[in-house]
Amino acid sequence: MRTAVLERERGGLWPWLGQRVTAVLVLVTIAVHLVLTHYIAIGELSFDNIADRLAGGAVLINDIVLLVAAVYHGLNGLRMVVLDWGLSTVAGRRVFDIMLWLAGIATIAYGIWALWAWVS
Question: Can you tell me the distance from the alpha carbon of 28 to that of 14, in angstroms, rounded to the nearest whole number?
Fold first, then answer.
């Protein structure tokens, strides 16, 4: 692996590693979600029994992990594309990173709130 790929101006080591880890997490949690939804189901899959499924705990935790991993993976991928296109100033990168963090936190908070509405 070339070290130029991991330079801070091109993204850095931790975002690069986070992209790989969240890719695996997304694949695993999607597989677990499908198994929990279609094979280890509580009754017939319908709109009415979603709260029963989420109240079990495993589905809720899996969906929250899937949500966090997918949001991080997507926003980090967007960040890498923008950095590759030439966002070269340190101040510009910092502002863009802050905007992405705020968008990610808001998206995750909204997603957890939407999931939690089914449980309570």
Answer: 21
Helices (H), 1-120: 13-38, 50-55, 58-84, 90-119
> What does the pLDDT read at residue 42?
63
Distances (CA, A) of 85 to 5, 80, 101: 14, 9, 20
- For residue range 50-61, list pLDDT tens digits in order: 777 777 788 889
Tokens representing 112 are 């957890």
Answer whether CATH 2.40.50 is correct for domain 13-119.
no
**Tell me: the pLDDT tens digits for 3-14?**
555 555 556 788
Distance CA 112, CA 97 (A): 22
Residue appearing with tokens 């801070």: 8
Report pTM.
Answer: 0.83
Alpha-carbon distances of 55 from 13, 43, 51, 85, rounded to whole Å = 38, 14, 6, 44
Look at the chain and count its residues: 120
Cα torsion 85, 90, 91, 94: sign: positive
